[in-house]
Amino acid sequence: MHPVFLRIGSLAEIHAATATGPLARGRRVIARTGRGIELGEVIGPCGNSRAISDSSVTIVRATTQEDELLIRRLDRHKRQAVEACRTALAESGSPACLLDVDQIFDGGTLVMHFLGPVDDIAASVTKAVAEKYESIVRSRHFAKLLSDGCGPDCGTAEGGGCGTSCSGCAIAAACK
């Protein structure tokens, strides 16, 4: 195992993680976190074994060209969701201030970050915007393939590596 530090999310949270192989600084990766499958960026090696043993973050794989295309699509929809939410909050008279949004890589979840308290109006506005966004980008089949590949732990050492379960594995190319 190769321990690294990852930068994840719009707030640039730093997490210790493990990878199956060495990864260069700046490399974008798909990681499994407590929130789901997320995009991360390697910021350097981690020599702290305690940080790794306490970490719940694992690197699934490095991003592929297909992932980068999907990331651009998700970013476009995310920007639209942020602007729609900010506009709706201003029009409703809510004092809530939306800072930014994290999107989970499968497109099924938005995590909204606010400055200060969130009132009932802001809660209902953000719920409506999130539901609209998620209905646009969500693909349950894609999310399942992204998470599982051709079976649980596909592409990991526990699952026997890539391509061992089926020849049509959705993530086989990324694992090679």
From TrEMBL:
Native source organism of the sequence: Rubripirellula reticaptiva
Protein name, entry field: PSP1 C-terminal domain-containing protein
Domain annotation PSP1 C-terminal: ranges: 57-146
InterPro entries on file: PSP1_C
Top-rank taxon: Bacteria
